[in-house]
Design a protein that fits this description.
There is one protein chain. This protein folds into three domains: 141 residues, 3-Layer(aba) Sandwich (Rossmann fold), CATH 3.40.50.1370; 153 residues, Aspartate/ornithine carbamoyltransferase (Rossmann fold, 3-Layer(aba) Sandwich); 36 residues, no CATH class. Helices cover 33% and strands 15% of the residues. The protein is of the alpha/beta class. It has a five-stranded parallel β-sheet. Strands 2-1-3-4 form a four-stranded parallel β-sheet, with helices on both faces. A three-stranded antiparallel β-sheet has the order 10-11-12, with no helix packed on it. It is built from eleven helices and twelve strands. It is globular, with a radius of gyration of 20 Å. The longest helix is centred in the C-terminal third of the chain and has 23 residues. The protein binds N-carbamoyl-L-aspartate.
């Protein structure tokens, strides 16, 4: 039995297989109508969501299954102080698979360790969002016909934007992918992406503050919202919130076959006038999310027929360092061991196993 907490848990072959299944679902939806009959998806959303939750629910319904769950923490026992682990154990009694969104980084991982059914990370704080990446990969594949030899520009809040982190983790494993990271200096990508993914695997990337300068070289432009809810200092958000606005003038600088993506919701970072440009793929991207979630649910439920729990990798684990990230699940979850792993032995760098911040 397998969960999906980080996109790195899926190999490139598995990502390609999910894309193939999703395309088959698009072409032959009727083949899949009864695949999840009598199966239940629990959507445990401790943080607001429109697309992710509804697309998970639509995905399960289109597979012939049913859904149960909640869409805000206040309507769950979390408001009475229940731990994530206990909630996961309880929901394992009632459902066959869980999709969990949580404001605390590492919460779905903790749930997956406690649950006896697969857990899908539907976004954990500013950390990861693997199923948005599945939507993104299908979108790039359908819009551009390939996932290799791409120059991908990511623009906006690269620090707190969890979709950006998972997308870099996934696409950096394809051949010939280069990144142009466009952000204010305060919102650059975090260390667990910079060092553990880009530097470690020598993936080419450049960093810039100028969207205009980056524009002509891009095959994909991935715009993001400045993540207001993750800022500790509201004044900093006010200062940075209008950093980038993609408008029709800037679109003129782009390749004819570029594709503009955005996980949505947008605030003001893409002018509504851009929506009419054929290169604007963000609404198609939201639809692709449903097909990829269908493919993922099918895969995880199929694998769950073999109930052996995937062993947690304990190599290099250290328990004497306490994570200082206030948004980490380890800051609040009852009796959760503080565990970190050495990610760079030469520099003696440890990262928390829940949120991947340096400890
Ligand atoms: C994203 C998220 O929740 O991280 N939205 C989504 O899942 N489609 C992006 C965002 O909220 O800005």
């Amino acid at each position: 039995m397998r969960s999906l907490i980080s996109i790195l848990e899926l190999s490139v072959e598995e990502l390609d297989q999910l894309i193939t299944t999703a395309k088959d679902i698009i072409d032959h939806p009727e083949k899949y109508w009864d695949c999840c009959k009598h199966k239940k998806l629990a959507t445990l959303f401790f943080e607001p969501s429109t697309r992710t939750r509804l697309s998970f629910e639509a995905a399960m319904l289109e597979l012939g299954g049913t859904v149960l769950g909640f869409s805000e923490a206040s309507s769950s026992s979390a408001s009475k102080g229940e731990s994530v682990a206990d909630t996961a154990k309880i929901v394992s009694c009632y459902a066959d698979i869980i999709a969990m969104r949580h404001p605390r980084e590492g919460a779905p991982f903790v749930a997956s360790q406690a649950a006896s059914i697969p857990v899908i990370n539907a976004g954990d704080g500013g950390h990861n969002h693997p199923t948005q990446t599945l939507a993104d990969l299908l979108t790039i594949s359908r819009e551009l016909g390939r996932l290799d030899n791409l120059t991908i520009g990511l623009c906006g809040d690269l620090k707190y934007g969890r979709t950006v982190h998972s997308l870099i983790e996934a696409t950096s494993r394809y051949t010939g992918v280069k990144f142009v990271l466009i952000s204010p200096k305060e919102l650059k990508i975090p260390g667990f992406i910079r060092y553990n993914v880009l530097e470690k695997h020598q993936v080419p990337y450049i960093e810039t503050t100028s969207l205009e300068e980056a524009m002509p070289q891009l095959d994909v432009l991935y715009m993001t919202r400045i993540q207001q809810e993750r800022f500790e200092d509201p004044c900093e958000y006010e200062r940075l919130k209008d950093s980038y606005i993609l408008n029709t003038d800037k679109m003129q600088l782009a390749k004819e076959k570029m594709c503009v993506m955005h996980p949505l919701p947008r605030v003001n970072e893409i002018s509504i006038k851009v929506d009419d440009d054929p290169r604007a793929a963000y609404f198609r991207q939201a639809l692709n999310g449903k097909y990829m979630r269908m493919a993922l649910i099918l895969k995880l439920l199929e694998e769950a027929k073999n109930p052996t729990k995937v062993a947690f990798d304990t190599t290099g684990l250290v328990s004497d360092k306490i994570c200082s990230n206030p948004k980490c699940i380890s800051a609040v979850e009852q009796e959760l061991p503080h565990l970190s792993r050495i990610t760079d032995a030469a520099e003696n760098i440890h990262r928390c196993i829940y949120c991947e911040q340096r400890v």
